[in-house]
Predict the structure.
Amino acid sequence: LLMGLLLAGFFYAFSTGELSSTLSFAKADLQAEVRRTLDWIVKDVRQTVSWEVANNSPSGTYIKFRQVEGWDTVNNSLSMSTNFIEYSFDAVSSTITRKSLDAGGNALQAWTFNNITAAPFYTMDGAGNIVVLNSTDLLTSRKLIASVSGQKQVRGSLNTSCSLSEEIKIRNE
C-alpha cells in the first residue's frame, strides 16, 4: 500500500511537471509567433505613407500599400515601389498572410503567420479613440495601430494566449 501511494505521488508529480513544461513551451512558441507577426507589420508600414494605405481600401482585416524607395529630386516627390505589400487576416484559419505583389496583383512571395485570433488593424479617430482601420481616420491621425492576438491549444481544452500592440506613426509625405 505504501509503495502504491509513493508511485501514485511520483506519477502525479511527473505528469504535473510535464504539463507545466508543455504549457511553457507552447506559450513561448506563441509569443514568438505573435512578436514575429507584429515586427513584420511594423517594419513594412514604417516604409510607406498614410495616403498609400488609405488609397487601397484598408479595413480591420486588410491593408495594402507600396513602400517608399527614395526621393525623386527631379520631380520633388517620393519614389514609390512598383510592387505592393498586402496583409490579410483570415478568422476561419486563424492566420495573417503577408504577400509581396507585383503591379498586376500577382503574388511574388507569401508568408503565413499562424494562431492569430483577431483582426489586427486599427487607427485613431479625431477624438483620439481607437477605431477599426478606415481611410478617413487614418489620413487624419497618420497612425496605424497593429494589435496581434494569438491563441494556441496546448492539450485538450487547455489554451495559452498572447497579445501585443504597437502604434505605428506613418510618414506625412
About this structure: The helical segments are 2-45, 50-54, 135-141.
